[in-house]
Structures are given as structure tokens and as C-alpha cells.
């Protein structure tokens, strides 16, 4: 892709550019509006200081950084003993109508000592990176994952950054192994990818997506992938429902030139007005900011035919806010007993499980302040098998914390979606972040299913209930379709994900309505 842009006469950035999400997926609207731009950190990597950047790179970085918040250039150097990183905060000023970089004072250099023995790194993850760029790719990835300690899934790099005719061009490049029949199927984009490209588009960049579709079995062979695969342009679309962002693959293009990508997008926009360059927002919370229904302009973008039934289709479930449901915090008072000791919260118990030092465990049992607990855990030696036990311990600690009235409060959050909170410290990955969200969501589904089975008159026990991949929800197979489901349970019905879900979903604890028919015998599901 870089070679194609260079052949067209465009300057391609010689520095690496990464986006980090410091606070993962803020869903509260007020917090999102006030602080979201500051939640993103933008890192440019180069082996030189900003003063010594080549002029084309300096001009390109200035144009990109002009519309972003918190851009830092990491100057890196490698010798036999250590990796050295020097951080230069960047600001942009206008000189004669052109943006120019204004580097701030460099922060003290960070040195990462290298082992004295020969370092044999596993570079299979980078087999598609050219040899000349491999060192920079390894250095950049090491800083993001280990020095910056970014949470998995909360960072991404900009694949291709170049100077277009008038403004910067960003190209997201993906490779997928598919058969001919499924070569045009859409891709699902992560929240980080979507928001990164949306921020860059808002900063004035021209954003494109291209996908290299290759036959099965050759995705790991770059030479064969380039010889036997084909390029397709992409357009990002927000689907109705839970706000999933997917990438629709447009027609094949002979070569991923900037002109071809522009033409493919222009034809797609002309043929299907519902598609956009890039969605302006990906947060489902924006869809529920008001109690009124969306305006006509939003409904006109949908390519789906309008339903003839006067019954309004259910909306996607809202998300929890950090202000209303503070009891879900890992630091909320919730006594947890572990190996004969009682800890004040999920966080303290989880940190205590990471070490075999009895003295540290006793201190954690007496501490209630989050900062003090984390400082104690950092100084303690970590048990050697912790990474193997982490997920199991997280599930057990959460299960112990959510019992009796806390279990009822957790079940009562249905049908709202749980949101992964800010990761307080990397030591808490497992009960916070994406892993913690998955564990708590699964626990809520198990508790809700158990409560619904005991009640007997909930939708879980209905003959029309069908399983769903989303814990705590089920589908409705009533012959009357959506209209029958809505008339039976009313507002309890929500719009499920359209890509991987089953359409209309209902919480398992919903009380059966007029169309409820109890199953004569309930199957055992082991929950």
C-alpha cells in the first residue's frame, strides 16, 4: 500500500503513529462529552527528535496533530545495553497559513535494559513487515504494550499515513482469508479502530479502508497473498441495534490506489446513501440521550423497508453510567473471603490472590483505600502461576462478592448493558477492562437464569424461548414474530445485535405476558 501511494507521487510518513485509549469505552454521555478527547493519547515514533524530522514528515505530522489532542513524539534509540525513549510533547502553531510543529521540553529519557544474552524474539507476528521497517515496528509495539502498559484492545496503529493532494490521507489495511462465496461479507470493527479513524477524520484527514482478500490457507504467506489475493475497498457503517460498526466490502479494485479507493467510495455512496465515509459516532449511549424517537432524517438513512405494523420496534438497550451503579466498582464495599481472610472489596481480594506472601495478604485485608492496596501489591512477589490462574480467580472472587442482595441488584441491571470501566492499574486486569466485563456479564447471566428458573413464570420458562449468545437474554420464537413479542412483554423487548445476535431479545427474568406458555419440562443447562 505504501509503495502504491509513493508510485502515485504521495509522500508516505516515515514515522509510526499510534492511538491509545486511556479510559476504555466511557458510556456516560456527560463524561463522554467533557473528557473523551483527553482519553486518547497519540504517539508518533521516530529515531530522531522533532527538530530533525525530514521536512515532509514534519509538515505531515503538523497537519495531523493540528486537529488532535495529546500528541507526543517518542524519540527512540537502540544500543547493545538498552532501549531509550525520549518524549517530546507537541503543539502546533500557524505560520503564514501553514501548521508548524512546536516541540515542548523533552521529558527525562526512559531506559529499558536489554538482557545480556542474545535476544531471540518471536517475529512471526511481524512476518508481513518489510525487513527495513521491522526494527521500528518491534520498538513501537514494545513501548505501547509494555512501557505505556496499554490494555489489550485499547490501542491501534495507523497502518498508512500519507500526504494527499490537499490534506493527510489515512488508509486502514486489513487482510482476510475467505472463499470466493464469502469474499464480500462485511467485517466487524472494534471500538478502538472505529474511534481512532473517526478522530482522524474529524481532524481533517481523508480516511479510507482497503482489504486484501486471499484464499484460505495462504494468509500467513505475504508473497502468495499478494500474488493470489485481490483488493477490495471498504465503507464503515453503523448498523441499527447495539451500535455495532461493521465494514462493508465494496467492489474489487485492480490496485489500492488513492484514486481507485475514492472512486469505489463515490460509487458506493451514490448507490446506497446509507453508507458513510466513517460513522460520526459509535456509542450506543448517544442513541438514548432523549426520551423521544429519532428524527425523520435519521430514519431516512436506513435501507430497510418500513414495517407495515403500527407497533414500534424495540430499541437497543442502554448502558450503565458510572454515577448510578457505583456498587459495580471493584472497590465498592463487598466482603470477600479468601483462604481464611476477609477482604473489603473485589479489588483487594483479587490483588491478594496474586501473591503467596502471607504478610502482604494480611496488610491487604486491613487496607480499604484503592491506592494503598495497589502499592502493596506492586511490591509483593507475584506467584509464578498467576497468569494461568487469573481468569479462574476473577470468576471466583466476583461470584463470592455478588451474593444475596448484591446478586439481586446485579440482576436488576437487566436489560442495560454493562460497560467496562477505566482500568485502575494493570494488576487489576481480569476484574476490570474487557476480561472483567466479560466475567461480570457472564455471572449476571447465570444469576438471572437461576432466578428465572426458580420463579417459573418468567420468559425463561416459556415454550417460545430460544437461547441467545448474550448472557442474560433470550430470543422469542413466537409465530407472530416481533409484533407478538412486543405485545406480550412490552418495553422489556430490546433490539439485539444484528450481525451476530438473534434480532429481538428479552431478559430471561421478564415476567411472562398474555402470550406466555409454560414449558411442561425444562431442560437442564448446567447453569
Global morphology: globular
| Radius of gyration using CA atoms only | 26 Å
Please summarize the sheet with the most strands: 7 strands, mixed
SS-derived structural category:
alpha+beta
* Count of spatially separate domains: 3
Count of strand segments: 20
**Main sheet strand line-up:** 1-9-10-12-13-14-11
Helix content: 25-40%
Strand content: 15-25%
Q: Any low-confidence stretches, pLDDT <50, length ≥5?
A: 271-309, 522-527
Mean pLDDT: 78
Keywords: Transferase
Organism: Deinococcus budaensis
Protein name: Putative NAD-dependent protein-ADP-ribosyltransferase YbiA (DUF1768 family)
InterPro entries: YbiA-like_sf
Q: What can be said about this structure in brief?
A:
InterPro entries: YbiA-like_sf. The protein has 527 residues and is of the alpha+beta class.
Structural descriptors:
alpha+beta; 7-stranded mixed β-sheet; globular; 15 helices; disordered C terminus; 3 domains; 527 residues; Tetracycline Repressor, domain 2
Please give a structural write-up.
- With 527 residues, the chain is of the alpha+beta class.
- It folds into 3 domains: 1-162, no CATH class; 164-306, no CATH class; 326-450, Orthogonal Bundle (Tetracycline Repressor, domain 2).
- Helix content is 31%, strand content 21%.
- The chain is built from 15 helices and 20 strands.
- The chain has helices at 2-7, 29-35, 55-65, 131-147, 191-202, 222-228, 258-271, 296-300, 346-352, 358-366, 370-379, 386-401, 404-411, 433-455, 481-489; strands at residues 11-12, 16-21, 40-46, 71-78, 82-95, 98-103, 110-113, 155-157, 160-163, 168-177, 187-188, 206-214, 230-238, 245-253, 336-338, 341-343, 465-466, 473-476, 494-495, 504-507.
- The strands form 4 sheets. It has a 7-stranded mixed β-sheet, sandwiched between helices. Strands 2, 3, 4, 5, 6, 7 and 8 form a 7-stranded mixed β-sheet that branches. A 4-stranded antiparallel β-sheet has the order 17-18-20-19.
- Helix 13 packs across helix 14.
- The model is unreliable at 271-309 and 522-527 (pLDDT under 50).
Amino acid at each position: 500500500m505504501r509503495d502504491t501511494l509513493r508510485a502515485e507521487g504521495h509522500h508516505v510518513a516515515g514515522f509510526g503513529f499510534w492511538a491509545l485509549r486511556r479510559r476504555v469505552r466511557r458510556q456516560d454521555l456527560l463524561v463522554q462529552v467533557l473528557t473523551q478527547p483527553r482519553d486518547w493519547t497519540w504517539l508518533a515514533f521516530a529515531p530522531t527528535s522533532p527538530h530533525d524530522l525530514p521536512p515532509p514528515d514534519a509538515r505531515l505530522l503538523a497537519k495531523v496533530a493540528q486537529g488532535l489532542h495529546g500528541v507526543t513524539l517518542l524519540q527512540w534509540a537502540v544500543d547493545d545495553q538498552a532501549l531509550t525513549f525520549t518524549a517530546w510533547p507537541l503543539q502546533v502553531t500557524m505560520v503564514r497559513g501553514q501548521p508548524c510543529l512546536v516541540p515542548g521540553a523533552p521529558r527525562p529519557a526512559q531506559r529499558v535494559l536489554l538482557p545480556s544474552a542474545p535476544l531471540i524474539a518471536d517475529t512471526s507476528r511481524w512476518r508481513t513487515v518489510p525487513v527495513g521497517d521491522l526494527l521500528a515496528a518491534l520498538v513501537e509495539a514494545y513501548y505501547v504494550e509494555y512501557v505505556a502498559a496499554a490494555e489489550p484492545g485499547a490501542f491501534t496503529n495507523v497502518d498508512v499515513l500519507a500526504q494527499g493532494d490537499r490534506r493527510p490521507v489515512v488508509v486502514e489495511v486489513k487482510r482476510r482469508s475467505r472463499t470466493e462465496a464469502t469474499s464480500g461479507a462485511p467485517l466487524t470493527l472494534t471500538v478502538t479502530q472505529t474511534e481512532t479513524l473517526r478522530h482522524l477524520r474529524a481532524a481533517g484527514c481523508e480516511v479510507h479502508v482497503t482489504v486484501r482478500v486471499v484464499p484460505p490457507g495462504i494468509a500467513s504467506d505475504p508473497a502468495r497473498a499478494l500474488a493470489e489475493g485481490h483488493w477490495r475497498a471498504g465503507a464503515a457503517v453503523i448498523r441499527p441495534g447495539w451500535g455495532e460498526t461493521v465494514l462493508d466490502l465494496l467492489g474489487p479494485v485492480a490496485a489500492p490506489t488513492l484514486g481507485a479507493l475514492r472512486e469505489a467510495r463515490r460509487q458506493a455512496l451514490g448507490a446506497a446513501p446509507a453508507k458513510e465515509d466513517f460513522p460520526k459516532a459509535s456509542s450506543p449511549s448517544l442513541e438514548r440521550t432523549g426520551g423521544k424517537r429519532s428524527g425523520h432524517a435519521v430514519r431516512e438513512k436506513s435501507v430497510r423497508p418500513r414495517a407495515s405494523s403500527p407497533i414500534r420496534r424495540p430499541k437497543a438497550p442502554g448502558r450503565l453510567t458510572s454515577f448510578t451503579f457505583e456498587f459495580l466498582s471493584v472497590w465498592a464495599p463487598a466482603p470477600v473471603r479468601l483462604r481464611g481472610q476477609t477482604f473489603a472489596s473485589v479489588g483487594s481480594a483479587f490483588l491478594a490472590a496474586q501473591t503467596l506472601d502471607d504478610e502482604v495478604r494480611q496488610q491487604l485485608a486491613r487496607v480499604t483505600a484503592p491506592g494503598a492496596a495497589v502499592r502493596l501489591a506492586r511490591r509483593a512477589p507475584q506467584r509464578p502461576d498467576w497468569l494461568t490462574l487469573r481468569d479462574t480467580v476473577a470468576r471466583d472472587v466476583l461470584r463470592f462478592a455478588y451474593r444475596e442482595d448484591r446478586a439481586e441488584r446485579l440482576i436488576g441491571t437487566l436489560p442495560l448493558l454493562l460497560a467496562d470501566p477505566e482500568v485502575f492499574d494493570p494488576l487489576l486486569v481480569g476484574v476490570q477492562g474487557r476480561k472483567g466485563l466479560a466475567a461480570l456479564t457472564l455471572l449476571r447471566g447465570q444469576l438471572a437464569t437461576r432466578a428465572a428458573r426458580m420463579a417459573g413464570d418468567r420468559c425463561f420458562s416459556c415454550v417460545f424461548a430460544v437461547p441467545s449468545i448474550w448472557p442474560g437474554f433470550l430470543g422469542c420464537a413466537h409465530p407472530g414474530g416481533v409484533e407478538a413479542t412486543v405485545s406480550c412483554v412490552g418495553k422489556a423487548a430490546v433490539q439485539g445485535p444484528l450481525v451476530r445476535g438473534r434480532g429481538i431479545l428479552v431478559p430471561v427474568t421478564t415476567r411472562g405476558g398474555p402470550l406466555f406458555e409454560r414449558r411442561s419440562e425444562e431442560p437442564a443447562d448446567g447453569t
